[in-house]
Amino acid sequence: MRGITLYFVRHGETDWNAERRYQGQTDIPLNEKGRSQSRRNGEALREHLTALRDADFIASPLNRARETMEILRTCLALDPRAYRIDQRLIELSYGAWEGQLQADLPRIDPDGLAARKKDPYRWRPEGGESYADLLNRTIDWLATIERDTVIASHGGVSRCLRAHLLDLAPDSIPHLESPQDKVLILRKGSMAWV
């Protein structure tokens, strides 16, 4: 991984993001704000166009990440569909929580919410994944990267990449920010938002 730069873009906003509804692996499309955020991020990547000439482009299989990647590539004057998909870049599965509003969880699943509060890194919702699971999946994917890479994926994947590459405590992963209107430039031991 030394010497390789990752240009990570979290997908733009969806209606479920705006509603604060757990999305996970449910395939919800971008909304207009999300498309605007993706265009903004594509314009930010234009400043790195020379460095991206030989980069790989990889997206999560979910449509919100794929549409984000296609918008990015259009902004870079590249063929919008000339990128790869990798299943390992899919978002954390929230299992039974997917589709639920955050505000409803104290009523719907108070025990799950209490367990998550106790150990947000290792907690796994019914039928879902923990951040520990996602970190392992992300590290497996990262081991396959051989050159600079532009990634369109999800907040959980971004958090796990940062924790691993910046040597952060795994317990910090659930608490890391993950904006939809910034590009994360990440190398082993360093990061910057643009």
Written description of the protein model:
The structure is a single chain. The chain is α/β, with parallel strands linked by helices and 194 residues long. The protein has 8 helices and 6 strands. It has helices at residues 15-19, 32-46, 49-52, 63-75, 105-108, 110-118, 131-142, 155-165, and strands at residues 6-10, 56-59, 84-85, 149-153, 183-187, 190-193. A 6-stranded mixed β-sheet has the order 3-2-4-1-5-6. α4 (63-75) links the parallel β2 and β3 (84-85). α7 crosses α8 (155-165).
Q: Which key terms come to mind for this protein?
A:
alpha/beta, six-stranded mixed sheet, 6 strands, 13% strand
In short:
The chain has 194 residues and is an alpha/beta fold. It has helices at residues 15-19, 32-46, 49-52, 63-75, 105-108, 110-118, 131-142, 155-165, and strands at 6-10, 56-59, 84-85, 149-153, 183-187, 190-193.
Topology:
Elements (H helix, E strand, L loop, with lengths): L5 E5 L4 H5 L12 H15 L2 H4 L3 E4 L3 H13 L8 E2 L19 H4 L1 H9 L12 H12 L6 E5 L1 H11 L17 E5 L2 E4 L1
Parallel strand pairs: 1-4, 2-3, 2-4
Antiparallel strand pairs: 1-5, 5-6
Helix pairs in contact: 2-4, 7-8
